[in-house]
């Protein structure tokens, strides 16, 4: 299956660069990988967020068909890893859109935001208000860190400054989703489910891996890992590779220490990235690029292979502090060095099999393989923190309905484990066309998948409240 020309064209219209600040602090990345060992295991996460975590509503608007409540709470990530979130992102904001008249039960679907989805109007207009009319279903819209009210003052639009910012965003959203699910459950709403489009679908998937009960999940236009969003998908052309390569070359901690922390899919992907970088002529074939476009493509992509999942990712640890920071350190120290138990998965080549080179600073930036190595490193760290195989399997995969576009150039699916392999029993529905056309014209298909997943839950668990 080819890729959508509309996806390729749309990406060329967007001129902003991603990760202009680079990878982020090496010490933050190290703590990210340690925290991933905890967040990837549902049982280890049970005590991270208290059952009675405080949530507040401070404003209500009445409309003809619904009530819209504005609410907020402090992100649990700020308590667990003090200082890792920008100050503007510490307060998590949400809108809760409730029908005036329920049709049946009191169902609520949490919608996580896709890339560039600032504030609430887009999800409210395209999904939440139609869901009130069509199914009498409430929606809770959570604001992403780094977006809308939670956007740092020095950030340009949706362009995150550092690779690590994506991980911090994801970690915050996983914990914040747990807060909201528990709050809704305590308020008597039922059934509860999660959805999202693109990055939002990926983040919803991560959040559900942490939820200890059966729950409907509808990830739209996302897949099993986010690594290739930035290495083989069309967004790879927006990455500031020159800065990433420079930092990777100058700071030996990336390849001499951080690579050794990669486990499972991260380690396998790093090795695969090295191999593909040497043996494939990448995105040029994937996007059907010819002649005149070749030079510009070559600059940005030298590796192909894995598939991405959306534009969203996992999370971060940060500088340790007193109090909650000490509790996190205690949790980290108690994690088994092997991380989550995935013995049934093939591990392939592990990080300690990777080759390390000692070189002088003057030679680092000029070595011909630097771009390949930077892409391999990107694939490794992304898969370490975002590959679904590194997380617990949701409690009941039959409640998962994935909606994917056949010609998605943002989310290529070639070369990675499919969601059906990682989550046996889930359903995948394919749409004709690409990422952009599906987002613009298939919102009704996304909503129908939500209704189907909720109905499936009610039939299977009529007494599970």
From TrEMBL:
Pfam family, one: ABHD18
UniProt feature coiled coil, ranges: none
SUPFAM superfamilies: alpha/beta-Hydrolases
Gene3D superfamilies named in the record: alpha/beta hydrolase
Taxonomic superkingdom: Eukaryota
PANTHER family recorded: PROTEIN ABHD18
Name listed for the protein in its UniProt record: Abhydrolase domain containing 18
């Amino acid at each position: 299956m080819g890729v959508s020309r509309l996806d390729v064209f749309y990406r060329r219209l967007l001129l902003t660069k991603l990760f202009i600040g680079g990878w982020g602090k090496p010490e933050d990345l190290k703590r990210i990988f340690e925290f991933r060992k905890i967040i990837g295991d549902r049982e280890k996460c049970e005590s991270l967020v208290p059952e009675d975590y405080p949530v507040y509503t401070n404003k209500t608007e009445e409309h003809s068909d619904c009530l819209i409540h504005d609410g907020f709470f402090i992100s649990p990530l700020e308590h667990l890893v003090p200082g890792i979130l920008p100050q503007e992102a510490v307060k998590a904001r949400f809108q809760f859109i409730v029908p005036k008249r329920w049709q049946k039960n009191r169902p609520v679907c949490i919608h996580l935001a896709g890339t560039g989805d600032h504030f609430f109007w887009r999800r409210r207009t395209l999904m939440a208000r139609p869901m009130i009319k069509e199914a009498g279903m409430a929606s809770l819209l959570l604001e992403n860190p780094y977006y809308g009210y939670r956007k740092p003052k020095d950030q340009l639009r949706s362009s995150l400054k550092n690779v690590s910012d994506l991980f911090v965003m994801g970690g915050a959203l996983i914990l914040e989703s747990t807060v909201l699910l528990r709050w809704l459950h305590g308020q008597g709403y039922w059934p509860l489910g999660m959805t999202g489009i693109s990055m939002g679908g990926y983040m919803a998937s991560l959040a559900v891996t942490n939820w200890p009960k059966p729950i409907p999940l509808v990830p739209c236009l996302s897949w099993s890992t986010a690594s290739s969003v930035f290495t083989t998908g069309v967004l790879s052309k927006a990455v500031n590779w020159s800065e990433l390569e420079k930092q990777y070359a100058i700071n030996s901690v990336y390849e001499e220490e951080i690579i050794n922390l990669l486990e499972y899919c991260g380690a396998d992907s790093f090795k695969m990235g090295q191999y593909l970088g040497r043996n494939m002529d990448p995105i040029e074939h994937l996007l059907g690029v010819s002649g005149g476009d070749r030079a510009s493509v070559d600059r940005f992509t030298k590796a192909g292979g894995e598939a991405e999942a959306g534009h969203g990712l996992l999370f971060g640890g940060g500088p340790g502090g007193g109090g909650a920071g000490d509790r996190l350190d205690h949790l980290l120290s108690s994690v088994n060095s092997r991380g989550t138990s995935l013995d049934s998965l093939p591990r392939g080549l592990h990080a300690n099999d990777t080759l390390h080179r000692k070189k002088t600073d003057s030679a680092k930036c000029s070595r011909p393989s630097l771009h390949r190595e930077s892409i391999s490193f990107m694939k490794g760290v992304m898969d370490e923190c975002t590959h679904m195989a590194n997380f617990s399997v949701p409690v009941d995969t039959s409640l998962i309905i994935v909606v994917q576009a056949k010609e998605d150039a943002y989310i290529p699916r070639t070369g990675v484990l499919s969601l059906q392999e990682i989550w046996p029993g889930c359903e995948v529905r394919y749409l004709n066309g690409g990422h952009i056309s599906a987002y613009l014209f298939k919102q009704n298909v996304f909503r129908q998948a939500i209704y189907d997943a909720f109905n499936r839950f009610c039939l299977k668990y009529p007494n599970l409240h």
